[in-house]
Amino acid sequence: MRIGLIGTGRIGLSHAAALAARPEVGDLLVADLDPARARAAAERTGARAAERVEDLLAPGAVDALVVTAATDAHPGLILAGAAAGIPVFCEKPVAPTVAETVHVLTEVERARARVHIGFMRRFDAGYRRAHRALRDGELGELHRVHATTCDMAPPPAAYVAGSGGLFRDCHVHDFDILRWVTGREVEEVFAYGAGRGADYFAEHGDVDTSAAVLRLSDGTLATLQGSRYNGAGYDVRMELAGTHATLAVGLDDRVPLRSAEPGTAFPAGDPWEEFWSRFTPAYEAEIAAFIAMVRDGTPSPCTVADALEAVLVADAADLSRREHRPVRVDEVRP
């Protein structure tokens, strides 16, 4: 199998390493707008470097395409792969705007292309366990959900400027996994945001601390909290409470919590510090699932339509934050 990868920054390099480790991949070609960076990535992963991005888009050049380039390049590369008739894996988001995302969705569906969008939490062992527990009836009737995503340290100002904001950049993962684990849609959200840290968040219309209440399609209530300044460590969790049991995702020995109860030693491990180490197995499983999709012709495990729904919830949350009112997701649906 010949796989092409475009974009050899940090996440691209990590995906390249995961691809190179797959026995199904006989030839891995990497490309970047900076050819020197592509050559360096090829040397580190045992891949071959292409001199131009266009080399990977030529007819018959590759059997599948992995897109880890800058966000503004995502729509064009997804559509180029679809036009070439090859499966595409693309890191989130699909596009910088909802309008562009809808355009990509329309064209992908018209071409009947298989596109896998990179929401890696769907491949995390804990979230997959929660997904099964709900469907097997282990939790009983779901009554409430709580989700948390907190960074240990904030991203730099340059990143925040083009990130799309806390709800789109960070909590979009919570919105996607909430839909996937519960099998329900988010209908309405009431969100708050606060600036408790650097001034550059406010300068870009963003916040560094968040809280929201979400109403799901069956009436289940979900709550969400997030922060860019969680000094104890990187904290991503989900709690699902049903009539029979409560299940927690991410509650392991490295969760950045400390108990105030006497005689309690849990958790005893070193806290997670950032997303890649926390989710390395999920990223690797995600790539394995994409390779299986290419090999077996199976449907995408996370479609462009799925990605659009998560972004619409993020946009509803951000509108709610700015206008201080509950917002139905249908209000932001094009």
Brief rundown of the structure:
With 334 residues, this protein is α/β, with parallel strands linked by helices. The protein has 11 helices and 13 strands. It has a 7-stranded mixed beta sheet with strand order 12-11-7-10-9-8-13. A 6-stranded parallel beta sheet has the order 3-2-1-4-5-6, sandwiched between helices.
Task: Tell me the number of strands.
Answer: 13
Low-confidence stretches: none
- Overall geometric form: globular
If strands are numbered along the chain, what order do they take across the biggest sheet?
Answer: 12-11-7-10-9-8-13
Strand composition percent: 15-25%
**Terminal-residue CA separation:** 38 Å
| Rg calculated over all Cα atoms | 20 Å
Backbone structural class: alpha/beta
Oligomer: single chain
Largest sheet: 7 strands, mixed
**Discrete helix count:** 11
Notes on the structure:
Keywords: Oxidoreductase. The chain is an alpha/beta fold. It is 37% helix and 21% strand. It is built from eleven helices and 13 strands. It has helices at residues 10-20, 35-45, 74-83, 98-111, 125-135, 157-161, 166-169, 172-182, 199-203, 275-296, 304-323, and strands at 2-6, 27-31, 48-49, 64-67, 88-91, 115-118, 142-150, 186-194, 209-216, 221-227, 235-242, 246-249, 327-328. A seven-stranded mixed β-sheet has the order 12-11-7-10-9-8-13. Strand 11 (235-242) and strand 12 form a beta hairpin. Helix 1 runs parallel beside helix 2, helix 3 runs parallel beside helix 4 (98-111) and helix 5 packs parallel to helix 8 (172-182). The longest helix has 22 residues, at 275-296. The model has no long low-confidence stretch (mean pLDDT 96).
